[in-house]
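Quick one, T. Sequence first:
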Amino acid sequence: MNRPTSLFTVALAAALMAPAAAAQSFDVGTNAINLGIGLGGYRYSYVASGASGYSVSPTLAFSYERGVAPLGPGVLGVGAFLANKSVRYEATQTYPWANTTYNYDQRWSNTIIGLRGSWHYNEWHGMDELDVYGGLMLGYNIGSYRNRSTRTINGVTSDYDYGYSGSISFATFSTYLGARYYFTEKIGAYLEFGYGIAYLNLGLAARF
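Structure tokens:
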């Protein structure tokens, strides 16, 4: 075997035996943003799925995180979470024998502000475009309630309030598993599954 061939053989063997380089999809110092919608989840809906007269909006969700430190074979990211979800109840009930009609129009709104900690582990797949992570969110749900229901008796209409309490703010948490896939160096899409304001979140992702 001549010298150039020997050098090539040694270099090829070294390349094959060398460990794969760590993916850089999310590293210490990386900033990442998710902006999307959430589907499903009854935790903030007050109603069972398909309940007559109720409609539940998709969740609007935004999150930001930054890689702050190595954590085992992965990276720890911390950041903020903001989301909103609303529920509306509309129905009409008429009692001819009493000349009375109720028009119900009620709305609940939930705005969640939280802090998230995520563990990003990407060495196993070796793809710079893919970021796989999971974590925990601790936050506070700011709830509000609006009632525009009316009652009509013998043709006379007035506001109708049957004493529902609108105090629905509370501490909350969620867990999640997610992934981002970047189509360019900075822009991509994300998908998250979890237990929280929604079971499934998806939308646009960005890193910088």
